[in-house]
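in:
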């Protein structure tokens, strides 16, 4: 994430900005992780299917 480009003069406002920034960053990272987990699940399913097909054809 890009750090803030401005400085807050009020420490409480700076703390609120930091909290919002961290929450947005957390949501972004969770979104990325969920997408990667979906892709990994799809890849694992494809691998399992292919291995099963190869095993079936070897038995025939």
């Amino acid at each position: 994430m890009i750090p803030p480009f401005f400085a807050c003069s009020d420490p409480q406002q700076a703390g609120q900005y930091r909290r919002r920034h961290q929450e947005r960053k957390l949501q972004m990272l969770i979104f990325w992780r969920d997408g990667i987990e979906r892709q990994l699940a799809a890849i694992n399913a494809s691998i399992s299917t292919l291995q099963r097909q190869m095993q079936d054809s070897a038995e025939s």
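note: DSSP finds one helix and no strands in the chain.
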